[in-house]
Amino acid sequence: MRRSAFLATALAVAFSLSVSAQTYDDVVAALAARSPFIFLGTTGTGTAVHVETIFRGASTIGAFTNQDVLIVRPSGAQSQHAIFFVTPINYGKLMTAREDGELAPPENLRTFSDALARADQAASDRKLRELLASAETVVVARVVRAAGLTAEWRPSEHDPHWSLAAIEVERILKSEPRTNDVIFAGSDDIRWFRSPKLHAGDEGIFLLRRENGDLLKNTRVPEVTGYILVDPADFRPLSEEERIVALLH
Question: Is the domain of 99 the same as that of 156?
């Protein structure tokens, strides 16, 4: 289906008098899934669209409220006042973005913002559920000690500075762990700065995975065994325990 035809269908379905709340949520979720910047705006001269209210992207794309952005719109798009779903493609004097979709604004914008919040929560839950499913074990634990691993080679660019932590398991949320040793990257290098940095006394929820042989081989880790923890999404705050338990069942 051509994008313009999809947009027309989405508009017709979402705002017909007989549409259910669930159907509207589905339309919002489908459009939001591919768009990092979502805003209410009014078309102006040429391809310019004046941004009135930002629903997503103010902190990551930019605070463009009360500014114009240039939108590359699909053939047939005619709405003058709409909620725009866009992906930025160029930053210059004005940001240029590709339109992924648009919806007519509801009478009460809270209707849309609530639907978007539900879509974001559902997407977050799906991603976390996938992480939980692929983890070998999930535990609530405290770091007892952590130290760098000695190595005989000279550090190179993007060296992870592999370190080893020993954890004390307080509660098992999924599967008995086979070891309490956790390998993590201690480096603040651009490749590793987002990886969890463990210190004695740290507490949280650990989604632990088997050693990644290729990763450890390519970065020349010493001969040690233990779980690997490099994804920031695999070390979560204690406040998420109830949510994680619910997603595991």
Answer: no
pLDDT confidence of residue 219: 56
Give residue 33's domain range.
Answer: 3-124
Q: End of a domain among 73, 93, 124?
A: 124
Digit-coded pLDDT (tens) for 122-180? 999 999 999 999 999 999 999 999 998 765 545 566 778 889 999 999 999 999 999 99
Q: What is the dihedral of CA 198, 126, 114, 6, to 10 degrees?
A: 130
80 and 159 together in one domain: no
Same-domain check for residues 152 and 192: yes
- Phi and psi at residue 137, in whole multiples of 5°? -150, 150
In a domain, 130, yes or no: no
DSSP assignment of 29-66 equals: HHHHTT-SEEEEEEE-STTEEEEEEEEE-TTTT---TT
Q: Tell me the pLDDT tens digit for each residue of 14-40.
A: 443 334 555 899 999 999 999 999 999
In this structure, are residues 146 and 219 in contact, taking their beta carbons and an 8 Å threshold? no
Residue whose pair of structure tokens reads 């952005």 in the numeric block: 69
CATH number of the CATH domain containing 181: 2.40.50.120
**Residue 171 within any structural domain of the chain:** yes
d(CA 34, CA 178): 39
Residue 195 DSSP one-character state: S
Residue where the block lists tokens 């398991």:
169
Average pLDDT, rounded, for the chain: 86
> What does the angle CA 187 – CA 192 – CA 198 come to, to the nearest 5 degrees?
60
